Each structure stands twice: as C-alpha cells, then as structure tokens.
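Hi C.,

You asked whether I'd gotten around to modeling the 266-residue construct. I have! Everything is below, sequence then structure, no commentary in between.
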Amino acid sequence: MKNHYIFLVLFFCFFFSFCQEKISEKEKYLLSISKENFEKIDFKKYNLEEIISFCHKFYKDTLKTDAVMKNICYHKENIGIEQDSTYFGSILYQQQNFIDLIRLLKDKNHKNFLDIGSGNGEKLFLALCLGFEKTSGIEYADSISKIAQKNWKSLIKNKKIELKIDDALKTSPQNLQADFVYMYSPIKDLSLMAKLYARCVKAMKNNSILLEVRMVYSQELRKLLFKNMPEIIGNFVLKKENNQFYYLSWDSYKNKKWHLLKTIDK
C-alpha cells in the first residue's frame, strides 16, 4: 500500500512538470535581462508571435512584459499624413495608461478588440499581447493604414490583426462591434465626435466595453442618446449588460463599481 502511494505521488509530480509550459531559450534570455538593458536586445531575432506568447506566458511579470511590448512598438514606424483635416493624422497617447486600462477592464470573456482610428496599429499589437485573440482597426487615412500594414504584416497574414480603411461615421454598424471597443477621439470636431460615439453606443453588443480616452463632449451626447451622461472628462468607460448601460467613474476604477446610465425625457 505504501509503495502504491509513493508511485502515485511520483506519477503526479512527473505529470504536472510535464504539463507545464516549456520555457524557450529566447524566453529565458528575456527573463534574465534587466529592464534597463532592454534597449540592447536585438528584437529582430524574435517574431511577433513569439513576443505575444511571451507576454501571455509571463503576464504576471508586468514590468518585464511591459518593457518588451514597449520596445517592439518603439521600433515601429509611426509617421502619417493627414488626408482630411476633419480627422487627426496621429495622436500621441500614453502607452502605459493604455496598457494599465486594458488590464483593468478586460474581462476573461473579451476575445476581440477594436480600435477606431487605429493609426500605425500598435495598440492592436498591444491588445494581442494583453490577451485578446483577435484585434481589428478602422482607419480613415489610407497613408497611415499602409504604415500599419507594414508594421504588423505577419500578424495580418495570420489573421490576428484585421485592418479596415473606412469612415467610422459611415461604416456599417456591424463594423463598430467588438467585445472591447477603444477610441481616442479620432475626430477633431466635437459634434461629429459625439455622433460617432453615439453610433458606437447603439451598435454595442451585450457584455461589451466601450472606452473613450478623451471624453469632452458629454453635453452633445445627452441630446443624441437621451442619456444622463455624467460630467466626466478624460477616460470614460461604458458597459452594456442585459440591454442596460453602465458607466465607470474615475474614482471607482480600482474597485470597478458600475453606475447605471439613466434615460432622460426627450
């Protein structure tokens, strides 16, 4: 009986060690390098799928995975020409803020990510590193979209990233749907931006998230959505659940306390 017990213990120890994900030599090297020395790494030796896999496997080591993601994006082209003065050609965003917000807000059931005004596509790559299975981008400017196609060619080929050259104000509502929709006010005119946001709200699926990083047009939205939009400037998070809309106030981000977005009289 004692020998039988010992055998079972040894068997399960072997089984679990066998089932653990093996760490490649490339991954061991990344884990061994300090954050300060990441700029010395030749990331050309790594394909993008390997980087995404590394970020998934070692997601708890946020300092290391963040450094890897940022280093990849740093070496990607990011210069575009505005085709239309209505839209921003490119927007300087806070990369770490984006990473932190996605980690905070992403639900385990969120599989696909959409960036409206996706620019050079780096947020699509970051979203893949942060656990989404597929990411999509809508970009108005053809010249900027071509940069994204060049930056993430292999991921587009493997259907991890999908790029659409389209006008988000006119595109089909289905193209505005995803488990997690992100935007950083891609339109300069606030009344037009409010119309785009209203389109996104109406297209939302149940259990989806809509994150607008630059909410500065809540008054216009009250007229379009007939919702009691709160006076929140900056990051505004909206969730649709059981056909009701809920928003997350800035002070409650840490605890993820949702507030019902109430309808107002027309």
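If it helps when you're writing up: Confidence is low (pLDDT under 50) at residues 7-20.

Thanks,
B.
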